[in-house]
Amino acid sequence: MGDPASSSPPASGRRLVRAFLSDRVAIACSAYILIVILMALAAPLLVKLSGHGPLEFDQAAVDSNLGGLPLGWGGGISADHWFGVEPGNGRDIFARIVYGARVSMTIALLATALTSVLGVVFGLVAGYFGGRIDMVVSRVMEFLMAFPALIFMIAVLSALPAENRQALLVVVISFFGWPYLARIVRGQTMSLKQREFVESAKASGASSAQIIFKEILPNLSSTIIVMTTLAVPGYVGTEAGLSFLGVGVVPPTPSWGQMIASSVPWYAVDPAYFLFPGAFLFLLVLSFTVLGDRIKKIAESGEGRA
Amino acid sequence: MIRFLVNRLLGMAVVLFLVCLFTYVIFFVLSPDPAVQICGKNCTPEAIDQLRANLGLDRPFWAQFWTFLTGLFAGRTYGTGANAIECAAPCLGYSFQTSQPVTDMILQRLPVSATVAIGAAVLWLLAGVSAGLLSAVKEGKFADRFITGLTLTGMSIPNYVLALSLQFLLVVTLGWLPFPQAVPFSEDPAQWFANFLMPWIVLSIGAAAVYTRLTRANVIETLQENYVRTARAKGLSPGLVWRRHALRPALTPIVTIFGMDFAGLLGGALITETVFGLNGVGKLAADSITKNDQPVIMGVTLLAAFLVVVGNMVVDLLYTAIDPRVRVGSAT
Amino acid sequence: MSTATRDEQPLLRVRDLTVGFTTAAGETNVVKHLDFDLARGGALGIVGESGSGKSMTSLAVMGLLPKGAKRTGSIELDGTELTTLRERQMQAVRGDRIAMVFQDPLSSLNPYYTVGTQIMEAYRSHRTGVTRRAARKIAIEAMERVHIKDAARRVDHYPHQFSGGMRQRVMIAMTLSMEPDLIIADEPTTALDVTVQAQILDLLAEIRRDTGAGLILITHDLAVVSEVADHIVVMRDGDLVEQGPAERIFCDPQADYTRMLLDAVPRIDDEIGLLRTTSTEETR
Q1: Exposure check for chain A: N or C terminus, fewer CB within 10 A?
Q2: What is the distance in angstroms between the Cα of A2 and the nearest Cα belonging to chain C?
Q3: Which SS3 state, helix, strand or coil, does residue B93 take?
């Protein structure tokens, strides 16, 4: 029942923002993500407040007679060590969580950015120009998606030298990640290409670059936003997983995945050691997933109404 | 049909060849000299040269790669004369650490990975599809929103966090399950089952969440189809409309995705097997990564790629069997 | 052209039919206080542009309105009030007594089943104790009646193996197998090629002649109604604009809106018979 919709371009930004702001779950998720980002940015400051650096050993906080089990309740939680200490060497878990947030966020966000750029560019080019270019790009995408990505990432990372692991992680994750966005961008570009406003731009003599960036790209923005928000949690998890397996961030640099990995031998006697990084990681992935889900719904209902 | 099959087989061969090449380049060209690693600390240049000759590392890259490839299909011989070692096809070389043939190491551990994969797959398929159906039937109601919340949680929890939490809760705190001990099924079926229960649950939760969402979306979308309206207009009962006209089209895509996910899992669940100490292919991969045992990592990577590619192919064939639009071309 | 005789009980009597939706923006009625009758064996054309409520009217008669729609008023089929029937009873009416042909025959047929299966399943669900063989024979007969050649072989083909016009014939065969009292065709020719459109309309007219079933033809195209209908209802924005015998509507439209619709069909004024001669050539 076509209600008298205006012919203005769909998804007016202000209405989407209003819909978003009235969504309490989305706000809660954004708040948690913001906290983690702030925590990562202010890590040196926070560590100064808590009084322990992430690499600082504290033998006084662990019981050497019990194999280095933290002294006190909940893995050594005290006024001195807010989240307790690592068994064995007594490093402050709060400091390591805070610094670990830096690693997780940097890698996940950079990988998302790189994936988006690659995915959008290749998707646009393949969808717009079609023909042979499209064929080549599509074949490459099919190949990468048929690849056992995780095991291959592990193999590559384990074979390559350990220096500059973080940059390497970003590159490797993005290398296998872009086809998923590119495939969707390609499909939408192909259908947008047929629309009148593109045809008329073409008729008025606009160059391919102008058409791609001025006419097509803006129409893909909601798709790209949704896809990237949904990609972040995947990359947070991938980084943590790779670090968990020992091919991610190299110790002693802390990362949540790696902290959980080193907690495995201790889970029975010191559950707090895996619970803290585990909870932070789980909540971060959950927040991004739920946020992406909500944004998708809002964007879809916007399209439906316009 | 035959042309389609030939095309698919050729495509599969190309992908596998590229995977081989990729892994080979990375392991034998970019990484540190294997001969030095095998030789260890107290090593003379002569010993290294001897090792290099035995491994064929002194020859040009393409020659080495060719030997590796032929080794996969026809086996190969290491060294010459009395020291020669015969490696039967499919030859993946020898472990740097244990000197065992990589093929044997993988084959020994495949049953454990298969057990893990099959159990998890059954679980997630049952749980995912039924929760998705329930969610679709109750669209917008409490049950639907509850399931949606659960799936988001299930998708977000990293499996090693879940593994540790479950182990702490069920084994340490509540004592409902015994501590994992490797026992064969024939000796102590109860302990065997208890060993695999947690890995099954952990592996299936994330996939079950994804399948729930997929089933829900597919069913809701299919119910909007015109042919469902036609079926109702014919006066079919709601049960018949559901069974015949909604379920089959909605569940077909799930079959195809299932094939790929299952194949991926057969190649080893690295994290889960490591956390639960199960001696499967995944644990083998994780262990060889820590020990930098390149031939083993490479063998496992190739196996995983092979399984994924074969899985893709089986799914394609399955699809042609299920979907008449692919099976029979249009006649008019 | 025979006009409906008003003194006997009509096949379908619709009174004060209103269909409304409650949305976030408030309540909107897409069909408002509609009255019309369809005589036994008559052919009624409901004409209007998209959004006029004509399709909602047909779905209201079938009891197949989308979720959230509210229906008030009265719909009587052969003296039986349909609006108060229970879902189970309505199922018995659907397909058996009122059958429907939809606009897009490709999406309206399930791609996973052969056309024969889809024709048979309606028959078998309404008539208990029918063997597969008997149902199959009925399906083949129905396909023959809509002039699908080689029906005994085609019965085992899938929808995608048929052309657009043939698919619509399959849809019509599906309704025929049940021998309904009333066939509702919702834009049956819109998705088809012009040449095929005429064949399908002819087929509908032929079936009405042979079976004596009533026909409601819903369309935006006055040329299409002129072909088949003897009584016409014109709708706009859910309102009834005017209704009357087909000749009257064509020769002496009362409402400006009807006149406007007529002007959009240039051929109609010249010669209604012209269309007739071009379309009666049986091609298959």
Answers
A1: N
A2: 7
A3: coil
